[in-house]
């Protein structure tokens, strides 16, 4: 497994802070101005990348009205809607990609996309994207995986709904064209997702099974699941974002607003820093604290020949005297000389 992968100028891996992707999806709500505002919001929040989805209604489905092409009526967000109509509303016009990517570059963000068919890969190659993301529903489209992977750029594979066999097939499809720059994303494809369905303990299992770095594509509300994933080894977190949930957008109900995205960046970095190393013992930062452990001290002025007892020696802070557990050894012994109150008890005094 690679120790790190570079996307643009940013290194991703266990030795680097979590890479945060702000997924725009259809939250631009049909407005290029809103799309650019989302880019600005992501940059202000400290995200590392903005991600789009590159398709049209005609490249992702068919303009057909039958039960096969409708969501079930009880779907929480899009009940009863035709796939074609939903994708027509949610898609990002291809002519918007360049101005969105340009704004991202101006704001110091990486920008890339999820292609949904070979024409999208060709288009994104013309824009010089630094990476590709395979969406969960496309993981079984192995020709698409190979088409994106053969470009030689990092490929991020989302795994919602997928079995171990399906994930392995997609990973091997990418490797079959010589691409080892693979990050597999743990994902639950429900919108919004219940945290109880996240199964984050699968992250180290996936890492060991596929020999790749693992990230999280998270559709739960809030940032708790994403922060927890870092402690289990996630090197990347992708979350849908919007400037304002109340203003609408097809994915707005489970998307983060700017302050929440900033908290995600901050708290995942903190979680990564807190992981540290698998060692037990005092840290360098605790050196002063060690001095303020307890030890045996003389608690009043004593004269030579007096016996050690509870009226003149006890355990107090700091830790410059004999260990507290040695009291039973020194009790009853006599002082060799006069000793002032506040003196650390040592063997040469008794």
TrEMBL record:
Stored CDD domains: SAF_NeuB_like
Signal peptide span: none
Enzyme Commission (EC) number: 2.5.1.97
Domain AFP-like: 295-350
InterPro entries: AFP_Neu5c_C_sf, Aldolase_TIM, PseI-like, PseI/NeuA/B-like_N, Pseudaminic_synth_PseI, SAF, SAF_AFP_Neu5Ac, SAF_PseI/NeuA/NeuB
Gene Ontology molecular function terms on file: N-acylneuraminate-9-phosphate synthase activity
PROSITE patterns on file: AFP_LIKE
Entry keywords, A to Z: Transferase
GO biological process: carbohydrate biosynthetic process
Pfam families named in the record: NeuB (PF03102), SAF (PF08666)
Tree of life domain: Bacteria
Record bears the keyword Cytoplasm: no
PANTHER family reported for this sequence: N-ACETYLNEURAMINATE SYNTHASE (PTHR42966), PSEUDAMINIC ACID SYNTHASE (PTHR42966:SF2)
The protein, known as: Pseudaminic acid synthase
Record organism: Raineyella fluvialis
């Amino acid at each position: 497994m690679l120790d790190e992968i570079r996307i643009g100028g940013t290194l991703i891996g266990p030795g680097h802070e979590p890479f945060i992707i702000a997924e725009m999806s259809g939250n631009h709500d049909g407005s290029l101005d809103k799309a650019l505002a989302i880019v600005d919001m992501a940059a202000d929040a400290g995200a590392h990348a903005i991600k789009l989805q590159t398709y049209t209604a005609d490249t992702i489905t068919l303009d057909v009205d039958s039960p096969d092409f409708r969501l079930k009526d009880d779907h929480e967000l899009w009940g009863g809607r035709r796939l074609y109509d939903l994708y027509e509303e949610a898609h990002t016009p291809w002519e918007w990609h360049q101005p969105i990517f340009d704004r991202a570059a101006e704001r110091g963000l990486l920008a890339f996309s999820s292609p949904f068919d070979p024409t999208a890969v060709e288009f994104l190659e013309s824009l010089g994207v630094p990476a590709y993301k395979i969406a969960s529903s496309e993981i079984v489209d192995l020709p698409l995986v190979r088409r994106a992977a053969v470009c030689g750029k990092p490929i991020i594979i989302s795994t919602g709904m997928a079995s171990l066999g399906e994930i392995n097939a997609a990973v091997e499809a990418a490797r079959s064209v010589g691409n080892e720059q693979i990050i597999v994303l743990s994902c639950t494809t429900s919108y919004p997702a219940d945290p109880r369905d996240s199964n984050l303990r699968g992250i180290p299992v996936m890492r060991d099974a596929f020999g790749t770095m693992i990230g999280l594509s998270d559709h739960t509300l809030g940032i708790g699941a994403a922060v927890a994933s870092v402690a289990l080894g996630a090197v990347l977190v992708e979350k849908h974002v919007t400037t304002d949930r109340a203003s609408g957008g097809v994915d707005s109900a489970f998307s983060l607003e700017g302050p929440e995205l900033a908290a995600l960046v901050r708290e995942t970095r903190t979680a990564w820093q807190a992981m540290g190393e698998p060692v037990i013992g005092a840290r360098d930062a605790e050196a002063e604290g060690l001095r303020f452990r307890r030890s045996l001290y003389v608690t009043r002025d004593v004269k030579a020949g007096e016996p050690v007892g509870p009226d003149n020696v006890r355990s107090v802070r700091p830790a410059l005297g004999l260990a507290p557990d040695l009291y039973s050894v020194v009790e009853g012994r006599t002082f060799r000389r006069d000793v002032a109150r506040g003196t650390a008890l040592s063997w040469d005094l008794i």
